[in-house]
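User: Round two. Same drill as before: sequence, then structure, for each protein.

Assistant: Same drill it is. First protein:
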Amino acid sequence: MSVTVLSGMQWGDEGKGKAVDFFAADYDYVARFNGGNNAGHTVINEYGTFKIHLIPSGVFHLHTRCLMGGGMVMDPKVLLEEMQALQEAGIPLEGRLFISPRAHVIFPYHKILDGLYEEAKGAAATGTTRRGIGPAFADKISYNGIRWSDFRHPARLREKLALQLELKNRIIRALGGETLSLEAILDEYMGYYERLRPSITELFPIVQQGLREGKHFLLEQAMGSCLDPDWGTYPFVTGSTTIASAATSGLGIPPRAITQIIGVTKAYTTRVGAGPMPTEIHDDPQALQVLGEIAATTGRRRRAGWFDAEIVRFSVQIAGVDALFLTKLDVLSAFERIKVCVGYRYQGEVVHYADLDSYQLAEVEPIYEELPGWQEEIGHVREYESLPAPARRYVERIEQLIGVPVRWISVGPEREAVIVRPL
């Protein structure tokens, strides 16, 4: 038996989808345990290019069984569209995809409120994806959530949804939005449920039997550790726990069953939405053009910055990471010189991420080292010793700063574009 958690070490968009797709060939189960369709994992393989938001990215390995845990919130329309796209690409889901009845459902009022709250905040907006994720998790915690299990009892569902609409329509009206109809939502969502019902099943016995039989589990965290509502840059965070320990509550995996935690980090830093980002680049057009990607979920251009060893080191420590999967090293081939943030200075003192709140973090001065670039294409490289010497130096400096080994290095978007370093 092995249980591996893949955890993002930055603010999301680290390349977890690529990592899951790479590892999943060796696993019996792949699972999501947190978040919703605010996650966006891009996978490129023999089936094509996919932007996965809800279904575990290991779905492309046809021997795997895919679990969607109760720690998730789900927009059924998005889920069904994703399922259809996969099936049209020749990827079977029947008998492979299992959805927890404990997962909470995103309704239209969650998405409307998400947008209205952001507009009401004005310049202080959080920068959410406006997918209804935060309001759905808020309902879960305030005892107002509706789960897939409620759909088994139509009378109960009607009663609960009517109450929520009575509450939510008051807020929507107060914020200038248009109110919603109970009958229209019931009709739409019961239609979704009928299509998803064959996949909705309690995961606890599946997980427990798999553990007893010595099966291998690969658990896919959504978003990054620095978006965690407790340990991230609050309030510029997400609605669910985003560190590796969330697998316990979000899927039902006992903590002692976790055998390996792999941290996924980019070779530089990106972020979507508002919030502090100490290494953000403002005055280098070339760097912004090269590093400023388009986010898979929102379509917004990501904010771009140099590698921040301070936040990655913190994330490694809070998650208990054993080794790093470093992504997008090939992107840095464009630079003659590459900066690495090795620490922060705040009001003249050297400080660490954990010493600061988000507003202080926005005011730190990053302490940089400069390393030589390599300025040659590395996408074809599959052996570590074949990398240019400056690229190896960059990887090894990251290891020194973070304190755990870099075991895997992605040098391109394709599944096979990975260097596996020997132990």
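Second protein:
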Amino acid sequence: MATVIPLKGILYNPEKITDGAAVTTPPYDVISPEEQAVFYERHPNNVIRLILGRTKPTDTAQDNPHIRSAGHYRQWMSESILKRDEQPALYLKAITYAHENRVITRYGLVALVGLEPFAKRIILPHEKTFSKVRSERLELMKATHCNYCPIFSLYPDDGGVLNTLGRAVDQSAPVVEFMDDQDHRHRLWRILDPAIHRRVAEAMQDKRLFIADGHHRYETALNFQKHLQETDPAFDDRHPANYVLMYLCSMSDPGLIILPAHRLLKAVSGDDMRQAIKVSRTYFEVAEYPYTPDDRQQVEQTFLSALNDGANRQCIGIYANLSPVFYLLTLKADVMDQLFKNELNASLRLLDVTVLTRLVFMKVLGFDQARLDNEQLIGYASTAAKALQSIDTGAYDAAFLLNPTRIEQVQEVARKGLIMPRKSTYFYPKVKSGLVMNTLVE
């Protein structure tokens, strides 16, 4: 079902770039403005200039971050900062990191995957996307004709695809190896053997792929393919834009971790939040955790522990600006069935993110779809510490803390052809941008 093939990957030239940590970044959509500035200063060839260029007040249709990205890309290719492999390859990626007092290594295959519309049920999404982000990413792809960042997808590895690749690189040195800012060890191997390419392609033919991270990038690839079909008379089935760069990870890999995607809201007043808490008591049991400056840390830990203890009971934590109280909302029995049984599939009704989006944001706070689609008014954090800090600093007005979505829930929703609310999952660690790139021009 899934078409997986090797590619002539574009990598940083090790003769000119000796430290991968200096030029690679996380995906564009998890980079804050402060981190963007750090990456810009780190190295003149950092991939940030390609994936998330700075805007300028003087930007025009002829000179903007997308046009400048294309210019950097062409220049770095001409100067051999970036270099395209001469032979098609599959790339085995390993990341080793510490999590909850244990050291874990996660493996993934970087390859090209044939684009398929979601309706064919071969490549399955699980989240909604932002319309403005899709259009912005499409303009970048039109300017650059390149995949800078692989899409992070999952598949059932019954055939031992990654074991096959692991044996192929056993005892060989990686072509890329470095430690990043988080002390994560990254390694990348290039696999050139056509026999292994065929074995992997055959093993993947009966697989469905589940998009874990990169829904905007995949939908952008589909939109770019459609754009070329409509505008390029030479476009045919052999065009490179019929494929997209992917990182494929086994669903059963012990290094596959999902962190929560806490919501951060702007333009929510103290009165809004007080009224929301009042109305919420109709649907939730509400526990309050007031604190003083002296006992803030202790109360915060008690609050977070209670949230974690409610992982199987649809619990939502709330913390608002200038309010010395943490709130823990625990859904009352049968509320979601009573309200949404005729609107939402059972697999969606009791997801924490659905409870938050449909019940808290839409019914209690009165948000409409336009408000939910405005990425300028909503942010995300993968740790409670970052979420709470964003309120204390005034960067956002209110934080809504969630327990992480489970991998089994992601699989069930995707298999049924259902869609979770935006940013329902935060797969960790993220796949680095800049390790392997792919041109959409032959």
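The first strand starts at residue 4 and ends at 5.

User: Perfect.
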